[in-house]
Amino acid sequence: MNNIMIGRFVPGDSWIHRLDPRTKMIGTFIFIFVMLWSTLWATYAWSAAFVVLAIRLTKQPFRLYWDGLKPIFWLILFTVVLQLFFTPGTPVLLHAGPLKVTIPGIINAIYVMIRFVLIILMSTILTLTTPPTSIANALESLLKPLKKIHVPVAELSLMLSIALRFVPLLMDETQKIMNAQKSRGMSFSTGGPIKRAKAIVPLLIPLFVGALQRALDLANAMEVRGFQDATQRTKYRVLSYGSNDRSAFIGLIGFTIIFIGIKFFIK
Amino acid sequence: MAINFEQVNFSYGAGTTLAQPILHDINVTIPDGQVTAIIGQTGSGKSTFIQHLNGLLKPTTGRVVIDDFVLTSDLKEKNLTSLRARVGMVFQFPENQLFANTVLEDVMYAPINFGYAKADAEFAAKTALKQVNVSEELWDKSPFELSGGQMRRVAMAGTLASNPDIIVLDEPAAGLDPKGQKELLAIVRGLKEAGKLVVFISHQMDHVIAVADHVIVMHDGGVVAEGTPVEIFNKDLVWFKTVALDLPKAGQFAEQLRQKGHILRHRPLLLTELATMLNEEKRHE
Amino acid sequence: MVKAIKIDNLKYSYDERSLFSDFNLDIDAGQWVALVGHNGSGKSTLAKLILGLLVAEQGDIDVFDERLTVETVHHVRSKIGMVFQNPDNQFVGATVADDVAFGLENIQVESSEMPQKIDNALTIVGMQEFKNREPHTLSGGQKQRVALASVLALQPKIIILDEATAMLDPDGRATVMETLQKLKKQFGKELTLVTITHDMDEATLADRVVVINDGQKILDGTPAEVFSQRKALHENGLELPFANELAFHLNEKPNKYMDERELIQWLSTLNK
């Protein structure tokens, strides 16, 4: 029921699950950055192999990763089609006005698709193995240096974790309000576009009002429990790197070195 | 004009890998012109059950027949409007559904959606507001300026305004103080007197014994008992434990007396009954 | 006798209507006071005034001899814990443990000391097995017990429960009340408890009942004293607890105030 989480987290005990969330975030960024330099089938293959290894290490069925790709399917298709029909070059296979199917076009299309898929898969590894609040904690820790330029990292991070905690509740409430208004005859499926747009008001207003009331109540509760300055707080969940993280970083460096090696040697 | 559940089964996400069966083999009739209470512990399927009464949910297999309207799994959303005009549903904490600029506008929302002309909708709204004792001076105010109790009554009026024959209420007394609870029960009785078919979910057995004519007991997604409140509340205690329900307060009190060796002639369900029985004992001594 | 809370000449208006005018209330340390009134009587507003969430126009509020002012408000709050009515709107953490930790983080407890304090607080309310659960998997009663634990972890001298059971089902209400009774027994005079409610069966548990309507004190005394005023209670939108209403209807009544347990005992011995 209502399991549409933003990047669904699945609890588990794999090596990847146990990594520090910062390691996973940094790893995802590094992988994507490096992978985007890929121009040869060999580097794509190497990147794909790395992702497959990572997926195996999460000990989760591939079906879950496939589910992560499904929402992006149309976007991938759209980009692939663009590459397919609009890449200049020779030899040309089909020609119809501005549309041109060329061999370089086909190759580019395949490469674009692989890039998309690998990026999504890698991000899914992150969200599948890391609870949202750990991601928020990791972000707070990684963005700490920004405090020097007066970015309110502590406040933003607290806002993020509280907001995340309310996601399931807000989804439930949306369903309840929709049920209440549907019961009073609200319909999204009839009428012209203007009527349908107006139909959203009886859904949005109660949600907003509810959210505002919740914010007020929460603020009171937080104050009463001693909240004053977001920057003057200790932390219950302290992140610390372990030996697993060291191995993970070594693995990442290894991936990058071999990637660069392939690029230079197969040229 | 009764409601019939015929071999109804319901699962969330039926047909997918995440299917969650909730209701099993429901065969039950909700009688016309009476107040029926649906009771059962949290998770017994009561909310899922009542959402079949106005088509918010459709049976996965089986059918729900509401008067002459047949609800099956393949019915399209657009065909449900006529059902919802006849079955009004008041959810728990209904004040959360208020949205309009004025009280009157909010209460007119349902009638207008169901095709009333503006003047008729206004009249219907005013009638409904009077029915739930929301005074005229509040009609032009923003619903958000009202007290919690007033907001709840406005929300109820919002459902009554389309003049449904069947009214369903999910825990209508939740969060109300004693006075508010009394007023709520009076409204329910008023609906019955007006000839409506009323269904309500409640955790408060004292309310059930006060207004219900008929009781349906749910447990683990199925209907395990049906009858008048007196019949249900006279079942043995072991049964009550298995379905995780309580007796009305008077019954609980009498049970505690019985455990101390003071046994009454029969199980009282109302405070006045209990007092009368205790007084009669004294006279026989 | 040390006064836990002392309210003098309180004046407060809401929406241009006067709610409290010259309101006085003293609560002794270690007392369990039930503040009762129908919805809208002003009882919740009083709680917010005591905690400085609302500011009175006139009057003084002292908490354990410390005057509540703009400067002292944070220190005063450190002596009081409050559990609010809506179980979801006070649950800050992503899990039960995180929520209890929230208060500890605010007062800058060392990270290494937190797990123990969290465990202790959760054990008192019987929720330690739910430590890693997310709030949307908990019932209302469970969430309120977590709220109590979050408050207990800060070791307040006073706990105020503002209609903490109003949104719960009978089961949830019962578990919260059981937990409160256990708490009061465990901490005795060290804990001052103020329960704000409109449920008279809950009010029976207190040492003292204060009835409020329209910002005015209507009745103030022991449960025995207050529940003998059936007419006054009805006039103020309240009812008697079940046992007392029953006793009222009996031809042969007990000669003194009895709560439910005592009445059952009395009735059962009569029959033997």
From TrEMBL, chain A:
Listed InterPro entries: ABC/ECF_trnsptr_transmembrane, EcfT
A Pfam family of this chain: CbiQ
GO molecular function: ATP binding; transmembrane transporter activity
Main location: membrane
Transmembrane stretches, start-end: 26-52, 72-94, 106-129, 149-171, 248-266
Subcellular location: Cell membrane
Membrane topology: Multi-pass membrane protein
GO CC annotations, alphabetized: plasma membrane
Keywords: ATP-binding, Cell membrane, Membrane, Nucleotide-binding, Transmembrane, Transmembrane helix, Transport
Signal peptide boundaries: none
Family, per entry: Belongs to the energy-coupling factor EcfT family.
Function (record text): Transmembrane (T) component of an energy-coupling factor (ECF) ABC-transporter complex. Unlike classic ABC transporters this ECF transporter provides the energy necessary to transport a number of different substrates.
Assembly and interaction partners: Forms a stable energy-coupling factor (ECF) transporter complex composed of 2 membrane-embedded substrate-binding proteins (S component), 2 ATP-binding proteins (A component) and 2 transmembrane proteins (T component).
Name of the protein described by the UniProt record: Energy-coupling factor transporter transmembrane protein EcfT
Organism listed in the record: Leuconostoc mesenteroides
Record lineage: Bacteria, Bacillati, Bacillota, Bacilli, Lactobacillales
